[in-house]
Write a structure and sequence with these properties.
Number of helices: 13
Order of helices and strands: HHHHHHHEEEHEEHHHHHEE
Radius of gyration: 24 Å
Strand content: 5-15%
Number of strands: 7
Strand order of the largest sheet: 1-2-3
Helix content: 40-55%
Mean pLDDT: 85
Length: about 325
């Protein structure tokens, strides 16, 4: 009897690399790469990895509905880097030939995009639609602080300071610590969540564990006659776990969400809402306060994040070559409608 050779699929190559990356890369880098590679795996998972060539990668990244079509330059670069690292690892293991991930012709950048932004009511609706305390807490922190999801995952329980209404956080990008202010609504959510956490996991707020725990598999007896999962305070929650529940809640509540949008959608929504509430105090001050909220180094980055660049483009399109002031009857100047 002749034994067939193992066919190494894209799915196998992706998971092999993610296993390696989880042990050798920074957590924030690993989560970024994982989200990009999981999308690639969902499209080309069954394909033999040796069949992945430059034309297929170009179509996947830049073709109709491609993975980088509506991404910013940094996000598009992460897509390419994640794919390149995965393919390099597969080639090192000898399961495919070396392949160079192509760049967009001419190095052109994607067009500005008017991203989805939720109103305050829509964000509260989404929060109420989250299926469990952990996922609700993630959304509550997002909608009250505009924090990046990677930073939320790394919050330790002992850094929740309700006596002073502070949430001590290490910003992954800058490697700096920040005391995020806890709003009245977030305080209520945290107090309710901490009661559930203590009852479920049997821990106190002094313990050096994660605020949003990951999951661990439990046995037949522990789960009451079936196998299942329980919170594991020693590990942070996974991005895929949180993303799946966010996606389900968005669909259940009938909210808009374009392909590729996830927790950054909430961060953008909160930032724009905060900017608009401070706009009466002056554009520059509102922009600086929002920049501080987002922990951005550059005000230009904050303007783009808020969608102000998109609004500038729309302004130009509405005025260039168009009639604006017209002379009406009796010599009165009127604004064109």
């Amino acid at each position: 009897m002749t034994m067939g050779r193992t066919v190494h699929t894209v799915s196998m190559a992706v998971w092999d690399y993610l296993d390696y990356a989880s042990r050798n890369l920074a957590f924030s880098t690993y989560t970024h790469y994982r989200s990009k590679l999981m999308r690639f795996e969902s499209v080309h998972g069954p394909m033999p990895v040796k069949n992945v060539k430059a034309p297929l990668l170009f179509e996947y990244l830049y073709g109709r509905g491609g993975a980088t079509k509506n991404c910013g330059a940094r996000n598009a670069s992460q897509h390419r880097t994640a794919l390149q690292n995965m393919l390099n690892y597969a080639a090192y293991r000898g399961i495919c030939d070396a392949v160079a991930v192509p760049k967009m012709d001419g190095g052109s950048r994607p067009e500005e995009r008017d991203w989805t932004r939720y109103s305050a009511d829509e964000m509260l609706m989404l929060q109420d639609g989250m299926p469990c305390p952990r996922s609700r807490m993630i959304v509550a922190i997002c909608t009250n602080t505009a924090m990046r999801i990677d930073d939320i995952f790394q919050i330790r329980l002992k850094y929740v300071k309700l006596a002073t209404n502070d949430l001590r956080v290490r910003i992954q990008k800058s490697k700096m610590w920040d005391n995020k202010p806890v709003t009245l609504e977030l305080e209520e959510e945290l107090r309710r969540y901490l009661i559930w956490y203590a009852q479920t996991c049997g821990i106190s707020q002094r313990d050096d564990v994660y605020l949003i725990p990951g999951s661990k598999r439990i046995g037949w007896v522990e789960a009451g006659g079936c196998t299942g999962y329980a919170p594991n305070p020693e590990r942070p929650v996974s991005y895929n776990w949180a993303y799946t529940r966010l996606k389900q809640a968005v669909e259940a509540q009938g909210l808009q969400r374009e392909e590729g949008e996830a927790f950054h959608m909430l961060r953008r929504s909160v930032a724009r809402l905060y900017f608009d509430t401070k706009a009466d105090e002056g554009y520059d001050l509102a922009l600086r306060m929002t920049q501080a909220l987002l922990n951005h180094k550059s005000a230009a980055t904050t303007e783009k994040y808020l969608g102000l660049r998109v609004e500038t483009i729309k302004r130009d399109q509405s005025l260039k070559g168009q009639s604006f002031l017209t002379r009406g009857r009796e010599g009165v100047i009127q604004i064109a409608r």
